[in-house]
Amino acid sequence: MNATNLHLFVLVVPLLSALAINLLGRRSRQWIAPMVLGSLAFSVFGSIIIMARVIEHGTLSYTVGNWQPPYGIELVVDPLSALMMVLISVVALLASFSSLKSVEQELPGREHLFFTLYMILIAGLFGLVLTGDAFNLYVLLEITSITTYGLIAMGRGRAALSSFNYIIMGSIGACFYLLGIGYIYILTGTLNMADIARILPTLNAPVATATAIAFALVGLWVKMAFFPLHSWLPNAYSQAPTGAGTMVAPLMTKVTVYLMVRVILSMYTPALVFTHEWIAQGVVWASALAIICGSVLALGQKDLRRMLTYIIVAEVGYMVGGIFLANANGLTGSILHIVNDALMTLCLFLVVAAIIYRQGSVSLVSLQGVFRRMPITMAAFTLGAFAMIGVPPTCGFFSKWYLILGGIDGGHWEFVIALVASSLINAVLFFRIIELAYFGSLQDGDHHEHLSTQRHEAPWWMLSPLVLTAVLLIVVGLSTGPLINNVIRLMIPVGF
Amino acid sequence: MEMIVDEIVAKYNYWIYVVLMMIGFYAMIGKRNLMKKLIGMNIFQTSIILFFVSTGVKKGGGIPIVDKYQALAGNVDAASIVNPLPHVLMLTAIVVGVSVTGVALAVLQRIYREYGTLEEDEILEKLQR
Fold this sequence. Notes:
The complex is a heterodimer.
Chain A: H1 6-27, H2 32-57, E1 60-63, E2 74-77, H3 79-106, H4 111-130, H5 134-153, H6 159-188, H7 193-199, H8 206-224, H9 232-239, H10 242-267, H11 270-273, H12 277-299, H13 304-324, H14 328-359, H15 370-373, H16 375-389, H17 395-409, H18 413-439, H19 460-478, H20 480-491
Antiparallel strand pairs in A: 1-2
Chain B: H1 2-10, H2 12-30, H3 34-56, H4 68-73, H5 85-115, H6 120-128
């Protein structure tokens, strides 16, 4: 194995293992767990090595099939994409432990199909963060979306309907992005991101450029469920099989936010995107609205998983708003929040998976007294909840801090108020659940059977990734300084 | 009036793309039948294919099959052949479109088996009951 191609192997190993899982998993399901965990563990080690190398030597680039850029497809690993690779591989590996267990329970006999899609999705996500080609990005975006449609449709009940709505919305998003690329291709005659960034500012075509940017950004906003375009997300994520939710919910929206950062920073150049101040301000207002509405809608939910999906909608508002503040603190906060939010969401969804595995439901009623039955799970839940609220030693605090600083720097008080208000609402949301789970009275009646006080902790397969994620929340929080200095600072463009 | 007509006729392919796109968009958002929504999605994708292919066309352009050594020597006039790249991109986009349609059809089949109908209103009614 040639070490300089390591980032390609990180992408290819999950892809090939997907095929192997489909073939061998059909024979015997003994094969599935070792292959999933083995290839993802390889990806984790590979991405950590790449990250170390990128921090030491700077950006790597790789031309596929020896077609030189700008004609061939270029894979670029800069500090930000290296960080995303580590994030994706770690989240996927931790989630897959829990998924293996819950899929065994929920989709018996169809595990090989589930994990084939699962591994292709992970390979697609790696491709998205690696690619340096605008059209290739569209293809990979659709690969990840199609696999997600399939994973969601494997759920029970309304899942197929939610999946269909997601297909329609997702296709609109992807087609808008493709149109934006079409305009860019007409303007510049190239599809390589670095080349576009070089040529675009030299052209004097403000209207066409603005159209191209608008189409691509709106397309990505649909894909990431930015507030007025979010309607597909809560149904799709809350009705997916539990095993799919634990991986899709932390990664899909966050990687799309990364794509927006990538498109703004490395393709359209910030100078062009932020030329019209009123547009950036409008987007910040919209994200403030997204944060408030997402949080308030979360208050009205009676099911923990559904509540979390609305919190995801609010969190997308945090990140989009932070980028469009167009200053260094806001951008730092947004990029940091991509990492932190992925870990927080993973932690909370792993808790959901563990509770569903044991008692079949996460409606608020059924959470009564769950602390006594699953103390370790709920301790991790409390930590995840603290991170979502933004309590200091956990990672959620630091990104929120940067976002608030960015809001003050940019004079966007509505954004600052929205952030603080959503922290308060999150506190209400989570303390309500913690209270219910800890002190909830054990009523006599229908739920008597479920709500025994006997300790019945989740299996080791679900508990260990959960505990590890909860620890990571604090570790990442404490290592915010080096993360910003070694990785994120390098991505902030000059003049911000 | 004359000017508008001239403008439309001169760039008729782009106008068709816009009209097709709006038809597809309307079907996706406005129609209540899930199958019609899916057909709308296909029209939408087709309009974008038309748009891309239009960008590659040149007046009097020939087929872009040229002699390799002539091309390397710089003896091929780029204006005499159509730009093949948008066509190639659209081949990929067609593949993507077909796969999305395939997944959507499979999902529709499951919905139909579960609810016995593809009308959104009727499905929602059944869900509320």
